[in-house]
Amino acid sequence: MATKVFISYRRADSAGYAGRVMDRLDRELGRDLVFMDVDAIPLGTNFSKVLHEEVAKCGVLLAVIGPNWSDARDEHGNRRLDDPNDFVRIEIAAALQRNIPVIPLLLDGARIPKADELPEDLKELALRNGMEIRHASFQDDLNRLIRGLKGQADQGGAGESHLPGRNASDFPTKTDVAQSQLKGPDGLGVFLRDKRNQQVLGWLGGGLVVAATGLWAVFVYLFPPGKSPDAKSPEPIPASVQADHGGIAIGGNVTGATITTGGTTNSDRSAKPK
Fold it and tell me: What does the angle CA 104 – CA 60 – CA 73 come to, to the nearest 5 degrees?
């Protein structure tokens, strides 16, 4: 039996994305294998009852989670997830209780809420492995999702599990998401504008600077600059000898030097015959 897909979303948070996901899945899997409340629930029926019945029929539930999914408020300012009659809470809780695979689709950097941010019947959602869906890489992300869902549908009768043929490579890893963000003319800009990517690049840059500084310090310590073999010692300055009124001051070897005194020096007189 083919796997049916249930799309759970919050209208104020992700109606546009949910509609795009439904359109792609309709084309790829067939309208009969995709359930989304807008078109699938007959008029005049019990909304909550139909949701429970449809969740029971599905083989996988896609929880479309946008930035405001967990903090959406009603007209009284109360958080919707805290209301036991909240339709999104009913859908996901029903799937978790039946052990139906729930795949969080995280839109444009949204995150899966932590367990302590969720009501008791949704806490297990925090442990479910999700995949990121971004505007810049929407088609690539949906292609990977559809490959995984088709694999489930093709092997739906092979075992008791709802996902008997699931191949982990059919769903994007964080590396796949990062690569897909770099595709297209605007991909690099989107990648660099992401705050988490900016933090990682900042850490990497700081680490490279510290590493380069440390290597330079080690190099200078191990290989200090030596004296150049061509360097010459300074030439000695000739000694200066002066005498005042017959006194002679000698500042070194006076051989060959001229001795100047206050009177006539020996060097000015002619030699006496012996």
Answer: 40
How many C-beta atoms surround the C-beta of residue 61 within 10 A?
A: 26
SS3 sequence of 30-64: CHHHEECHHHHCCCCCCHHHHHHHHHHHCCEEEEE
pLDDT tens digit string along 52-95?
Answer: 998 999 999 999 999 999 999 999 999 999 999 999 999 999 99
SS3 223: coil
Residue 269 lies in a domain: no
pLDDT tens digits for 9-58? 998 889 899 999 999 999 988 888 899 876 567 788 888 888 899 899 99
| Range of the structural domain that residue 28 is part of | 5-184
Residue 20 lies in a domain: yes
Task: Specify if 172 maps to a domain.
Answer: yes
Q: Which helix (H) or strand (E) holds 104?
A: strand 102-107
Q: Write down the number of H helices and E strands in the chain.
A: 8, 7
Residue 173 lies in a domain: yes
Tell me: the pLDDT tens digits for 174-199?
Answer: 444 444 444 444 455 555 656 566 67
Residues 6+ positions from 226 with CB-CB distance below 8 Å: none
Domain count, the chain: 1
At 190, which amino acid appears? V
At 100-111, the pLDDT tens digits run 999 999 999 899
DSSP letter string over 172-217?
A: --HHHHHHHHTSSTTHHHHHHH-HHHHHHHHHHHHHHHHHHHHHHH
- Kindly report the CATH number assigned to the domain that includes residue 135: 3.40.50.10140
The Cα–Cα gap between 50 and 13 comes to 22
Angle at 92 between CA 6 and CA 121, to 5 degrees: 165
**How crowded is residue 169: how many other Cβ atoms within 10 Å of its Cβ?**
12
